[in-house]
Write a structure and sequence with these properties.
The protein is α+β, with helices and mostly antiparallel strands. The chain has two helices and six strands. The chain has helices at 2-11, 56-65; strands at residues 15-19, 28-32, 39-47, 72-82, 97-100, 105-106.
């Protein structure tokens, strides 16, 4: 999921300046356009039909620390669908899957999990 979001950001003209370890439950990217504001992107991944969501405690923690870097915070929900099986929610044994990503969602004090 994080690699997919990173590729999307690069296509949008952003440079990734930090990438957390992908083993985190909520991996993070930090990106910016040249001379632009820093974006913190929290990536959530789910396997169809489970939509990824950002927990309330994570929202609180990220919003607490983002001002230190004057960063805007976004959530990037990525859902994978198995394209090789009739049961779309089963993990793919052969790496055939489709990623559904409809864009970044701004995270604010009014965000809901």
């Amino acid at each position: 999921g994080i690699a997919y979001v990173e590729e999307t950001l690069q296509k949008m003209g952003y440079s990734v300046v930090f990438r957390s370890g992908s083993r985190n439950r909520y991996p993070q990217l930090k990106a910016r356009k040249q001379n632009g504001k820093l974006w913190w992107i929290i990536v959530g991944v789910g396997m169809y039909p489970n939509h990824p969501h950002l927990g309330e405690e994570v929202i609180k923690q990220v919003l607490k620390h983002a001002p230190e870097e004057q960063a805007k915070v976004y959530f990037a929900p990525v859902m994978f669908i198995n394209t090789r099986s009739q049961n779309l929610s089963l993990p793919s044994q052969n790496g055939s899957f489709t990623a559904l990503f409809n864009g970044l969602v701004a995270v604010t004090n009014h965000s809901h999990p």
